[in-house]
Amino acid sequence: MEDTKQAAGASVPGKKPFPDVQLSRDTRNIPIGKVGVKDISYPIVVMDKNRSFQSTVARINMYVDLPHHFKGTHMSRFVEILNTYREKIALDKMETILAKMKEKLGASSAHLEMEFPYFIEKTAPVSGAKSLMEYTCTFSATLSDHFDFVLGVKVPVTSLCPCSRELSAYGAHNQRSIMTVQVRYNEFLWIEDLIECIEACGSSPVYSLLKREDEKFVTERAYENPRFVEDMVRDATVRLLAMDNISWFSVEAENFESIHKHSAYAAIERSKNI
Ligand SMILES: Nc1nc2c(ncn2[C@@H]2O[C@H](COP(=O)(O)OP(=O)(O)OP(=O)(O)O)[C@@H](O)[C@H]2O)c(=O)[nH]1
């Protein structure tokens, strides 16, 4: 009877009330860890080390937990909350948005994930030609009894195989690799600084624009700097351990092998307990 009353829901004057099916009771006794909306495309603002801020478009996921006795969550409220912050969705709003999600959805935990392209101006190593390069970044935040935030970046690099270089009379196989880094930190960390740290771990950084003199330079630099996936994640670990403000990290390297159909892969995760 109680449930039927609750399920009566909102109404429009003169019309039959809309039943609130989500509020009805579920009897399977199974709570849900994450339920919500996925893949919303939405404008956000990201702090930019050189230009103060940068506007971009994120793919956003928003989830909350759902107690066992409710049939469903209220999907429309996630988007309503997002719309409240419209032009102002940025890193410093994540905890506020999560608190609103918990409040409006009566949840004990809330998750907010954003994946977005971030652009950095790079300078070619010899010609000095400038161009914008896109990096895929992620913000992943959770609010339960405490706030947790993880910054992630996918950094493309060139890797040149040390084994191939040793064995071959000419050249060495080399390929584009993706290094994926995720960090928890105590003091503000620029995306640019994290990218610079990871880019140094491959055989060479990659660029959007290279003239012929640059091409010669990056080809030779990679040859002089061969790297296995193991070298890449170990070098990254040394560098990330030396960054005092980082409390936890995970780093992965995937080399899209040019002599195989599969990739070479390595990963390291460390908590610094600071
Ligand atoms: N919970 C849930 N809702 C879904 C799903 N797929 C679509 N929806 C729809 O999400 C819409 C919005 O639901 P609510 O947020 O409860 O909408 P509402 O009752 O108008 O909003 P409130 O008054 O704030 O509760 C409904 O039309 C649902 O049918 C699903 O898989 N689960």
Automatic annotation (TrEMBL):
The record marks 161 as: May be catalytically important. GO terms for biological process: tetrahydrofolate biosynthetic process. It comes from the Bacteria. InterPro entries: GTP_cyclohydrolase_FolE2, GTP_cyclohydrolase_FolE2/MptA. Gene3D superfamilies: Urate Oxidase (3.10.270.10). Residues 1-24 are annotated as: Disordered. Signal peptide: none annotated. It catalyses: GTP + H2O = 7,8-dihydroneopterin 3'-triphosphate + formate + H(+). Its EC number is 3.5.4.16. Belongs to the GTP cyclohydrolase IV family. This is GTP cyclohydrolase FolE2. It comes from Geomesophilobacter sediminis.
